[in-house]
Write a structure and sequence with these properties.
The complex is a heterodimer of chains A (111) and B (116). By secondary structure, chain A is mainly β. In chain A, strand 4 and strand 5 form a beta hairpin. Chain A starts with a strand and ends with a strand. In chain B, 0% of the residues lie in helices and 48% in strands. Chain B contains no helices and eleven strands. Classes of the chains: A mainly beta (111), B mainly beta (116). At the A-B interface, strand 4, strand 5, strand 9 and strand 10 of A face strand 4, strand 5, strand 9 and strand 10 of B.
Chain lengths: 111, 116
C-alpha cells in the first residue's frame, strides 16, 4: 500500500523554464509534507516543506503547493538550472515524525 | 558541525555474515532515524530513537536486525546472518524535536550494503 506516490519517474526541462514535480498521497493524517533532493551516492537533502494547514510555501526558486482536498502537492522550480538535475523525493510526516517517501522523480535540466 | 556521518560508506559481505553500521547524528539532535532504500524506491522507515530509547520499529525490521543508540549519541545498526535481499542503501537521519521545524530530518550519505 503506497501512501505517497510520484507517478512520473522522470522529467526533462530546459534551463530557465519551470519544472513541476507532482506528488499524491492517500493518508489524510499526514501533517507535514517535504521535498528532498538526492544526488547519486549522497543522502537526501531537505529542500522545502509545507504544513497541512497551508496551501503554499515559497523559498527562493522553490514553491510547494498543497491541495488538501485532492491530496496532491507539487513542487515548482523557477527558473530551472542545470544544477537542479537530481532525483526529487516527496515525503509525508506521520506518527512519531517518521517520513513516508514516494519513489522519486528524476529531473534533468537541459541547456 | 559537519552534519550526519555514516560509516562505512560501502560494505560487501557474503551471505550469512553479520554486518554493523554506524551513524553519528548532528550533535544536538535528539532524534535519530534509520531508513533503507532499494533501487527505484524511496527511503523506507526502519526504526527511530528519541535520545537512547528506541520508540518504534517497522515490520520491515526482522529479528535479524538490531539497532542501538547508547547514551543517546551515535547509533549502530546490526544485521545478522545477512541475506541477498538485505542489499540496499541504509540511511540515517537526525532531527531536533524541540526545534521550530521538528519535521526536518537531515540525512547522512548512507551505507551501501551488497550481499553476495
Amino acid at each position: 500500500d503506497q501512501q505517497v506516490k510520484q507517478n512520473s519517474p522522470s522529467l526533462s526541462v530546459q534551463e530557465g523554464r519551470i519544472s513541476i514535480l507532482n506528488c499524491d498521497y492517500t493518508n489524510s493524517m499526514f501533517d507535514y509534507f517535504l521535498w528532498y533532493k538526492k544526488y547519486p551516492a549522497e543522502g537526501p537533502t531537505f529542500l522545502i516543506s509545507i504544513s497541512s494547514i497551508k496551501d503554499k510555501n515559497e523559498d527562493g526558486r522553490f514553491t510547494v503547493f498543497l491541495n488538501k482536498s485532492a491530496k496532491h502537492l507539487s513542487l515548482h522550480i523557477v527558473p530551472s538550472q542545470p544544477g537542479d538535475s537530481a532525483v526529487y523525493f516527496c515525503a509525508a510526516r506521520g506518527t512519531a515524525s517518521k517520513l513516508t517517501f514516494g519513489t522519486g522523480t528524476r529531473l534533468q535540466v537541459t541547456l | 558541525d559537519t552534519g550526519v556521518s555514516q560509516d562505512p560508506r560501502h560494505k560487501i559481505t557474503k551471505r550469512g555474515q553479520n554486518v554493523t553500521f554506524r551513524c553519528d547524528p548532528i550533535s544536538e539532535h535528539n532524534r535519530l532515524y534509520w531508513y533503507r532504500q532499494t533501487l527505484g524506491q524511496g527511503p523506507e522507515f526502519l526504526t527511530y530513537f528519541q535520545n537512547e530509547a528506541q520508540l518504534e520499529k517497522s515490520r520491515l525490521l526482522s529479528d535479524r536486525f538490531s539497532a542501538e543508540r547508547p547514551k543517546g549519541s551515535f547509533s549502530t545498526l546490526e544485521i545478522q546472518r545477512t541475506e541477498q535481499g538485505d542489499s540496499a542503501m541504509y540511511l540515517c537521519a537526525s532531527s531536533l524535536e524541540a526545534s521550530p521545524a521538528p519535521y526536518e530530518q537531515y540525512f547522512g550519505p548512507g551505507t551501501r550494503l551488497t550481499v553476495t
